């Protein structure tokens, strides 16, 4: 039997190369393997936990994320693309799961603690943000996902879901499926740094991202501004490859490994300027992004088609979620009018 896979993204901005390397390429491989029933949620409810004052930003980016999904090759015939807020059962499941986790446990979640620090909430933490791991448990369990692709920073979130599932099943009976982490091969190598240096990962909020939708001129400008080696002041100076963001990107994206090895050797001994290396990186990245950019532009000219895909995917997700919710309500003894009898 095929396994069920669940993953998704918050629609707080367009998707960038970090998403492409860290998740989108592996999702394509999983979709194309034929081994999984794939569900991908555009998590607008989760995005609202820290964008509640700007709902238009979230609304606009639902379509942006959908365009990125389709442009890279996610196929609605093989992968269900759904909008989180349109799956009616999810809020109800979240309420039931909230009874199964303590406030102290939510506060100990290291992923949530880290994000709270990053966002500077201080003592004014929105309750919805603190509890979003419980909402995420509803996302994962509505389709009885067996596997959830995760990176190292998201493992605590999945473990919280696993705990909720175990608690529910121990009290009410074996209804929910306990999901397993699916760690992409080479996950540690797929942590793409931002354009400003290897000390930070690519992020919308940090302004160090190359987006899948960037045109060639924008891409060239961003590559030209990338962090290299601060000690490489003159062309003839020996340069450092380690920690040099341009070479990190070449290691990830360049298919001609021999050419990259030659560039590294030349750079180390001196006589190779940063501009030439960056121009080579631009050509490599532009070749990777041009087909995606072209498909995205075609799709953007027919947003009705994109909206239809999201509507159909959300409706299918609703059918699946309603079935799980009916089992949950029955197990909890709150299916009062099942078969017409109280």
In a few lines, what is going on in this structure?
54% of the residues lie in helices and 9% in strands.
Task: Characterize the structure shown.
This protein has 342 residues and is mainly alpha-helical. 54% of the residues lie in helices and 9% in strands. The protein is built from 14 helices and seven strands. The protein has helices spanning 17-33, 44-48, 55-72, 89-98, 103-108, 110-119, 127-130, 132-141, 155-172, 216-224, 245-253, 257-269, 274-300, 303-331, and strands at 3-9, 36-42, 79-83, 147-149, 180-182, 193-194, 197-201. The strands form three sheets. Strands 1-2-3 form a three-stranded parallel sheet. A two-stranded parallel ribbon has the order 4-5. A two-stranded antiparallel ribbon has the order 6-7. The model has no long low-confidence stretch (mean pLDDT 92).
Low-pLDDT stretches are none
Distance between the termini: 37 Å
What order do the strands of the largest sheet run in, or round the barrel if closed?
Answer: 1-2-3
Structural class: mainly alpha
Could you tell me the mean pLDDT? 92
Measured on Cα atoms, how large is the radius of gyration? Answer: 22 Å
SSE string, helices as H and strands as E: EHEHHEHHHHHEHEEEHHHHH
Oligomer description: single chain
């Amino acid at each position: 039997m095929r396994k069920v896979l669940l993953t998704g993204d918050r629609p707080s901005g367009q998707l960038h190369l970090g998403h492409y390397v860290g998740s989108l390429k592996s999702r394509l491989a999983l979709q194309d393997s034929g081994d999984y029933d794939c569900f991908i949620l555009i998590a607008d409810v989760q995005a609202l936990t820290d964008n509640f004052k700007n709902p238009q930003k979230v609304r606009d980016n639902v379509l942006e994320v959908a365009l990125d999904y389709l442009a890279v090759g996610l196929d609605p015939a093989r992968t269900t693309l759904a909008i989180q807020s349109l799956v009616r059962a999810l809020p109800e499941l979240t309420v039931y799961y909230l009874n199964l986790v303590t406030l102290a446990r939510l506060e100990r979640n290291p992923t949530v603690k880290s994000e709270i620090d990053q966002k500077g909430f201080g003592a004014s933490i929105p309750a919805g943000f603190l509890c979003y791991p419980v909402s995420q448990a509803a996302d994962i369990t509505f389709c009885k996902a067996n596997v959830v692709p995760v990176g190292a920073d998201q493992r605590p979130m999945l473990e919280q879901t696993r705990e909720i599932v175990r608690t529910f099943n121990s009290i009410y009976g074996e209804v929910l499926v306990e999901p397993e982490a699916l760690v992409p091969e080479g996950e540690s190598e797929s942590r793409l740094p931002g354009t400003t240096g290897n000390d930070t990962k690519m992020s919308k909020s940090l302004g160090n991202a190359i987006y899948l939708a960037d045109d060639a001129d924008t891409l060239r400008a961003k590559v030209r501004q990338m962090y290299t080696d601060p000690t490489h002041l003159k062309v003839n100076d020996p340069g450092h490859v380690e920690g040099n963001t341009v070479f990190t990107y070449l290691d990830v994206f360049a298919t001609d490994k021999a050419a990259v090895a030659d560039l590294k050797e030349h750079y180390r001994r001196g006589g190779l300027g940063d501009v030439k290396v960056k121009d080579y990186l631009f050509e490599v990245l532009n070749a990777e992004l041009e087909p995606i950019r072209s498909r995205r532009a075609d799709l953007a000219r027919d947003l009705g088609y994109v909206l239809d895909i999201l509507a159909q995917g959300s409706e299918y997700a609703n059918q699946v979620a309603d079935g799980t919710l009916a089992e949950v309500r029955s197990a909890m003894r709150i299916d009062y009018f099942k078969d017409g009898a109280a």
